[in-house]
Amino acid sequence: MKRLKLILHSNYTYFILIFIVLLISLIRITLPKKSHLIKNNKTFTGTIVKYNIDEMRLSMTLKNKEKFLANYYFKNEKEMQNFQKTIKLGDCIKVVGETSLPKQNTTKNIFNYQKYLQNKNIFYIIKVAKYQKISSSNNIYYKIKQKLSKNLEKNYYLQTLILGNKDMIPEKVMTSYQENGISHILAISGMHISILSYLILKIMKIIIPSTKKSYLLTIVLLLCYISFANISPSIIRSSISFILLSFNKLYNLELSPIKIFILVVALTILINPFFIFDIGFLYSFTISLALIITITKKKNYLKNLLTTSAIAFYISIPISLYYFYQINLLSIIYNLFYIPLISIIIYPLSIIVLLCPYLLPLYNFFTNILEITSIFLDKITLGKLIFIKLPFYIYLLEFLLILYSLICKNKYLHKKVYLFTILILLLHYFYPFYHQEDYLKVIDVGQGDSLLLHSKTESILIDTGGVATAKKQSIVTKTTIPLLKSLGIKKLKYLILTHNDFDHMGEAKSLLTNFKVEEVLINQGPINKLESALIKEGYLIRKIKQDEHLTCGNIDLIQLNKNMSNENDSSQIYYVKYQNISALLMGDASIKSEKELLKTYDFHHINILKIGHHGSNSSTSNELLAKINPNLALISVGKDNIYNHPHQEVLEKLKRYEIPYYLTSESGTITIDLDSKIITEDNID
Predict the structure, then answer these.
(1) Which end of the chain is more exposed for a tag (fewer CB within 10 A), N or C?
(2) Do 255 and 209 touch, CB atoms closer than 8 A?
(3) What distance in Å separates the CA atoms of residue 277 and residue 273, rounded to the nearest whole number?
(4) Cis ω for the linkage preceding 170 (within 30 of 0)
(5) How far apart are CA 556 and CA 561, in angstroms?
(6) Given CA atoms 138, 139, 140, 146 in this order, what sign does their dihedral have?
């Protein structure tokens, strides 16, 4: 023990440890990952380690030689109920279906699902046509986990705070937590593990007089609990931390907090080096480090809480900016309310309700307070600052400066470093104002339309697309808004809704709820349900007239269409002019609209044509192509869509007139730099 104590107290031990961990992690991360599944196979068997049912959609994680995902849609309610009765966690199941790779992001700066799964060693997704149970599980671990899941399935906060499963929290609610900067408190992290281990330890000390045995039994029970929760980096880090702190106390090792911290991080990364890409781990790691080197306990609880909240916010700024392109200054204040609400009331109640379900109404009362207040506070835009996406080294510089400003003991130097850090952050925030770019983007929103025009810090979004994902997730909150923020766009001058088809304006409410828009423009047709709902919400909406001019920085737009017989015919059409570049954006306008357009306006040449109606043969006539003679055609269309857009007839016309074209289904989001005329495709397949 003395020799171990000497080794652990030597600074050289930690330098060597850091070097070894970095070397091993680098090798493990850079080694190519290989799957043992045969892609062309149709039949797979595996043990169910996790499953989730969302309406009629079944998502399973199966494990054989490796983990893989399997998705299935129940044919009816009876089939779903039969699955729930007969199939449990740990059962062996055979699935038959098509194998595919997880989707990559087709828009830059957006979450990459494929990379996320690969970091968890999951390489394939099976689209299941049919399934068959092979055998039931007698494994006690799965039986306990199934029982836990069954007891917690009625409340998604119990699932979140007991098992670490946040998948069931409604998207609107989860978005509000992220926007308010409080989503981290819902993860099972150091705070929750500390509360849980403290409660277990108190009980053990009552049952067992021996301090050593109480600690050891607490560690054993804690490890048992962790094995049933969805293992996350923050859970592993905080659990290892508790274990090492316990040993430090029991065996009088006298290790400093910073040395224990280094040991914790080293062991966590050795378990899985890909944890360094996990947001939860990065938040947990940086906040813990900052609190260790700065916090000195005060008697005043409120002062402690405020100091902790402020330091946690300050050190995590680079992480928030790198992943979310935004910080919320008011989150420091919000955490003064939410941290006690979660740590003192909701989390302990979660454990109590697990043992005593009759207290669920009381539990729901407090979780409702959590949700209602968060959704309300999300509407407050004051304090929300959006930062443009910059190269990684900028965020690393910001982190090192912030860390040094916390460590530095020299008051004079500390002040200089702190001011320099603020200057760097201000330069980052105002970067779009002194580095202006002018561009047009056709955003990949699946089978729908959404175009972004940007010039001189002003932006216009034309259409929003509609809900088209398997889980009915909002395209706007998952793609459009993160894209806008990553570009440093803080508000939209106009949201133009060309017409009231769902695939063009279905996400309008979601956008207006979550992003600042000065004015909404709709076409001249009758008001429909979607438009009426927006008007009732009190948004500034008006009908745009034919020949009305709009500006967006250096870009000029003219709306060319009038009210006609149906929505597609009445779709807004825009002539766009930027210096010597012209574009015609056709919305869903039909050949009938095109004829009226050519009769009213004298077009000689258009550089860019956004093809109407996703390449349907109801649009894009020979007369239009011959008259405007575009240099380039853009088609917004979903991959493998049920309408078979774009129609072959339209593509053949483009080839006949020797017009090059891009499809969002193939190229992802398409960007045209209006200054350099360079075209960029975001699809990284």
Answers:
(1) N
(2) no
(3) 9
(4) no
(5) 16
(6) negative
Mean pLDDT by 10 residues, the chain (685 residues): 79 91 92 79 90 87 91 92 91 92 90 88 91 91 83 79 77 87 71 78 83 86 79 78 88 88 92 88 88 75 84 93 94 90 88 86 93 92 93 96 90 89 96 93 94 96 78 82 96 95 91 93 86 86 94 96 86 95 95 93 92 94 94 93 92 95 95 93 74
- Whole-angstrom CA distances from 200 to 141, 163, 231, 444, 516 are 21, 17, 20, 50, 47
DSSP string of 591-625, one letter each residue: HHHHHHHHHH------SEEE-GGGG-TTS--HHHH
Tokens of 673: 């730099």
Integer-rounded Cα radius of gyration of the chain: 28
Cβ proximity of 354 and 225 under 8 Å:
no
Task: Provide the residue type at 82 as one letter.
Answer: N
Structure tokens at 627: 């008259």
Phi-psi region of 194 (alpha: psi -120 to 50; beta: other; left: phi over 0): alpha
Task: Give me the residues paired with residue 59 across strands.
Answer: 52, 71
What are the tens digits of pLDDT across the range 29-58?
A: 988 878 877 777 889 999 999 888 888 889
254 in Cβ contact with 288 (< 8 Å): no
- pLDDT per position as a tens digit, 484-532: 999 999 999 999 999 989 999 999 998 998 899 999 999 988 888 888 8
* CA 222 vs CA 187, 227, 249: distances in Å: 17, 9, 17
**CB burial of residue 355 (10 Å; 0-12, 13-18, 19+):** exposed
